[in-house]
Structures are given as C-alpha cells and as structure tokens.
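Sanity check record (used in CI):
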Amino acid sequence: MTTFGDKIRKLRKEKKMTQQKLGAMVGVSYRTIRAWEIDGRYPKQSSLYQKLADAFQCQVSYLMNDNETVCLGNDEPSEYSGAKQARQILEQAAALFASGTMTNEDKTIFMDEITRLYLE
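Expected output for Helix-turn-helix transcriptional regulator:
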C-alpha cells in the first residue's frame, strides 16, 4: 500500500520539482506539501486533488486511493502539458543548434518561423 504522501513525494521527485514549485503550481505553501509528504496529512479541499493530478499528469483516483499503485496518465489535457511540450521542443531545437549541422541561414529561417507561429 502506497500512501498519499509517498505518491506525492515520488511524483514530485520524478518531475524534478521542489516542494516550493509544486506548492506554487497547486496554490498551497511548501509547508503544506511537506505535511502531505512527511506528516501523513491530506488535502483539505477536494479541488486540490485535481490540481495535483494536473501537475503530475495522472488520474485523480491514483492520488485518492492508497490501493492504486500505478499512476495512469490523465485522459484530459492539463494546463501543464502545453508547457511540457514547449520545453521538449526547445530542448530539441537547442540540441539541433548545438549539433553544428545547421547553417546560420537555416537557424535564422527556423527562428523566423517560430516567431511567426508565436505571433499568429
């Protein structure tokens, strides 16, 4: 059996989040996150379960049920999934630029296209 606090700590570390960052994402203090992880406390507001599920991209039922041991992906797109995809694209672009396989002209064309897409 995995407790709520164990799940929060495990998921937070997998996502490389600090307690402060997770708290800011879901609207609570880092002390609250600490209390969940260490003191065995639970969210007082049910809406926090959905915010946590969105932050971790998992289903609410995983967080609410101590018997569930597998964190299944959230079927609904979360507000954080777009940011995650953007980071992945930036990481891929940085790797492409660093590889030295693109000319400066190609890099300029790429950046112009990204800027155009953003402005649209």
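Residues 79-117 form one domain. If this sentence no longer matches the regenerated tokens, the check is flagged for review.
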